[in-house]
Amino acid sequence: MAHFPGWRARSGTLVRTAVATLAAGLLCVTALGSPASAAVTPEDPRASATAPGDGDDHLALTPPMGFNNWNSTHCRAEFDEELVKGMADLFVEKGLKDAGYEYINLDDCWALPQRDADGKLVPDPERFPHGIKALADYVHAKGLKFGIYTSAGTKTCSSIGFPGALGHEYSDAQQFADWGVDYLKYDNCNNEGVDAKQRYTTMRDALEATGRPILYSLCEWGENKPWEWARGVGQSWRTTGDISDDWDSMLSIMKANLALDEYAGPGGWNDPDMLEVGNGGMTDTEYRTHFSMWSIMAAPLLIGTDLRSAPRSAFDILSNKEVIAVDQDELGKQGKVISSEDGRWVVAKELADGSRAVALFNESDRPQRISTTARTVGLPHAAGYRVRDLWEHRSTHTAGEISATVPGHGTVLVRVDPDRGWPQLPPAMDSGVDGVAITEAGDSARLTAVTANLGRRPVHSVSLALTGPAGWRTKADSRPGSPLLRGGAEFRTTWRARVPEGTDPGTYELRLTTTYRTPSGREVRSVSPVQVKVSVAPEDGTTYLSDLTPLSTANGWGPVEQDRSNGERAAGDGGTLTIGGRTWDKGLGVHAHSSVEYFTAGRCEQVTALVGLDDETGERGTIAFEIRADGERAAATGLLTNSQDAQELTADVSGARTVTLVVTDGGDGNEYDHADWADLKVTC
């Protein structure tokens, strides 16, 4: 596996060193500007607010918002003048400008591969027939600002090799200023090994020398920890490599950026890369999580989809002003991780009015109840608190508990503050099924729903209904409601969901509908997703687990690999399973932190494997293996290193309905932790 300096944060690990991905594409620090008439002069009060050479922290007092084409177009032909004008038009027509978005930014591939005879950059005449100045004027005429891209190297990141700014900083900066550029994204490719601070500071000085305020965004990929030195150089700094339009990429970048909360603030922002909302690689639930978490992290919000063809759901997410207000809060705090356990995340952000934005984020692929309290997130004691759901746009009150049953990969984002008017608000309610039920076709899944009143006042006429796919039958085994549910009280309802014969294996969604009346008599109805997994248990005898379909997988880098090592991030890119020079044809290749769950239906007795670090990591990496039966440890190795041969691991799993294979990082971070479950078998 190719590793490079700065690669430290893998999915599943919170460390203060950011992920750096050397994929082709754009990895980045940011420059922000305004019309030339607003340029800082020595007489301007802003001129004395920042020492010479220390940058301008008065740019980007809140995280920048806008558009960048890279995620949706890369260098393809559709990146042209018409696209850029179309984005500016849609910012105005669709209300995005009114929501706070203001920058329309070009990324790589806007120039010709060669400079002119005077060493100047030349816009591509086919993509931009009227030139960059005319395009910037068009954007400015819409009341918006205009941004451009280059790299702190001899060439940009494109394989075509467009000219970079290394050695041309002052000339290029002046061209940008003359064109009316307000924002510069400055990448890190082809940097010739020149010191990062030197390269980025030189461009900072060149931009200042133009006399035009230009927001300066450093796209340094987190390789040299720019969060420690870039404040005063630029107004934002990339903390990670490039994002991709998939869940694993977004999640790993989010985790790396969450660890850097202390470095963000007005005038200087951690940048976990642009938004993927609307590009189609994630579900709407995942895109809402993406937007929620970027907002609570006070990250720049740069739309990365072609709005001309984006679905309505993308506009609904991107234009949510209540969520945007969390990102743009003038206090400028980045949210802090309050807790993280078993995929249940609580992140809280202090806001300027003293309230807290709280994200209840579910990393797992199944519904989970996630809870915290007003006191835990930093609010003072109060008789009652207002809880504003920023996606449902609904206010309730709580006695102090903040809780929700959150769908898999989902986020509930609320704003909480003490409120003497809490008695006028309906109580907050949480009703749902935590986790997932597992069964086989022709059998019944057993579920338990918990309905809780989190407020101080009672609700009345509470009733529950569970509905499933066509042909499924559901029945409550205990009372599915209550005439009165007092504040702070809860009740449980057990259900059976009968799965029809012949149902294919897979995950099926049911709906739990909860209806109740508030103290004022208003009827409220909420719907919570419920998951049932239909699986097939192993046959009698001994079976290779790699030949079975797991219930769920989680992996620290790339996918769990079947009958091969973990390799790199892509599926199927690993090699032969190899530990201490010994090879196997069957097994699983994973990367800490990893979890692979199988359905055994209480019919199996034993799981065996030969485990260790794969030889592809050389002498690096430390890991520990564990086999769990119904969530309880059944066998474990302790700490293993690459100097050790394959270790035998045997677990008694008698009576267990599920078996989970877990690999942790040994307590020292998960770099190079490529783990093999070789010759992995289950006996039933």
Rg result: 27 Å
- What characterizes the major β-sheet? 9 strands, mixed
What is the tally of helical segments?
10
How many extended strands? 39
Measured as a percent range, the helix fraction is 10-25%
Shape: globular
- Global structural class: alpha+beta
Proportion of residues in extended strands: 25-35%
Uncertain ranges: 1-55
Spatial gap, N to C terminus: 36 Å
Average predicted confidence as pLDDT: 91
Task: Describe the structure in brief.
The protein is 14% helix and 34% strand.
Topology:
Blueprint: E1 29-32, E2 65-68, H1 70-73, H2 81-93, H3 96-99, E3 103-105, H4 131-141, E4 145-151, H5 169-179, E5 183-187, H6 196-209, E6 215-218, E7 236-238, H7 247-258, E8 269-271, H8 284-296, E9 301-303, H9 312-318, H10 321-327, E10 336-341, E11 344-350, E12 356-362, E13 368-373, E14 385-389, E15 394-398, E16 401-406, E17 411-418, E18 429-433, E19 436-439, E20 444-453, E21 459-467, E22 473-476, E23 481-485, E24 490-498, E25 506-517, E26 523-534, E27 542-544, E28 552-554, E29 561-562, E30 577-579, E31 582-584, E32 587-591, E33 594-599, E34 606-613, E35 622-629, E36 632-641, E37 647-652, E38 658-664, E39 674-683
Parallel strand pairs: 2-3, 2-9, 3-4, 4-5, 5-6, 6-7, 7-8, 19-26
Antiparallel strand pairs: 1-6, 10-11, 11-12, 12-17, 13-16, 14-15, 14-17, 18-20, 20-24, 21-23, 21-25, 22-24, 25-26, 27-39, 28-33, 29-32, 30-31, 32-39, 33-38, 34-37, 34-39, 35-36, 35-38
Helix pairs in contact: 5-6, 7-8, 8-9, 8-10
